Amino acid sequence: MDVLSGKALVTGASGFIGGRLRDVLLQRGLEVVAIRRPGSPPAKKGRALECAYEDLEGLCRIMREERPDFVFHVAGATKGVRYEDFWRANVMPTEHLLKAIEREHPRIKRFVFVSSQASYGPSPHGRPLVEEDPRRPIEYYGQSKLEAEHALERRREIPWTILRPGGVYGPGDVDFFNLFREISKGRNLFFGNRHQKWSALYVDDCVEAMLLAAIHPNAVGQGFFVDDGHPQSWESFQETIVRVMGKKVITIDFPFAFVWLAAIGGELLTMIDGKPRLFNRQKATMGAQKAWVVSSAKIRKELGWEPRVNIEEGVRRTIAWYVEQGWIR
Q: Residue 105 has what DSSP assignment?
């Protein structure tokens, strides 16, 4: 198996997972180049080249001049108003990156794409999804991730790997942060999802899976689910946060009808100001499912990957980071 060395190009390096990946790559001595969208924050570490994903010629120039050994495509969007919003954020950038590689740098060692379990849809009858299951996304985000996966699968000359992580949490995350913040204030809130099961993954374990996928020969042309192997209910996950924080909380269990009302309200606000919100009917549809559980048996067997951080330790590290950064007290 090859050693991870040389130059890595990372998309989404200003985000949660991409930022952690960039840091680890730099720590391991790789040269890291990030693609930064025009107007986005400047890179804190490593080099960043400004280029819009709509600019195919600009991406071709980057591939021609930089010639990275590895491309880690992490950038994307989880919120949007119309399918076109998700297509422009998740599908088109993938297509353009692949075209740029085909034109200017076809001898790349690996293209690692971070997709999502949403490309498959919810778990059937609560059984963990496996890679052989049919892909049946139920909302725009999952549909766009599946379309991006198809873009890779059409390529025969580019060595690619797809990773489909469960719910990734950890230091720097802003989505799960809302749960931690509410609990730190003594409020343990559920929105009709108390008993919904889902697969969790600590961010460092996700990054390790990405690095292994970049160099393992068995990963070429393959897609893998990635999780910590211990499905959670929202109740058990939030109980862990409460226990680690040592907080006394009031538990409030809102009925799911509240979620639908909030979703409609969120969409009305979006119609006014054009800003996509987490509360919308697409997300409400995801929340209405009984389970979003996957099995990582394939990546464990074929690549030898194993998660190292259990839920208790992951929550502990996440809380410590939020406190250190002053996000919670």
A: -
Going by their DSSP bridges, the two strands 200-202 and 167-169 should be labelled as: parallel
Tokens of 183: 């609990």
> How many structural domains comprise the chain?
1
The model scores a pTM over 0.90: yes
Which residues, at least 6 apart from 150, have a Cβ–Cβ distance to it below 8 Å? none
CA separation for the pair 31, 37 (Å, rounded): 20
pLDDT in tens, 105-118: 999 999 999 999 99
Is 80 exceeded by the pLDDT of residue 22? yes
- Distance between CA atoms of residues 37 and 33, nearest Å: 13
Residue 261 CA to residue 223 CA, distance in Å, equals 37
> If we measure between CA atoms, which residue out of 253, 265, 260, 254 comes closest to residue 285?
260
In this structure, what are the phi and psi dihedrals at residue 245, rounded to the nearest 5 degrees? -70, -25
Report the candidate in 170, 128, 143, 156 with the shortest Cα–Cα distance to residue 298.
128
In which domain, by residue range, is 212 found? 7-173+200-230+291-309
Buried b (16+ CB within 10 A) or exposed e, 184-197: beeebbbbbbeebb
Which sign does the torsion angle of CA 84, 90, 93, 95 carry? Answer: negative
The CATH number of the domain where 218 resides is what? 3.40.50.720
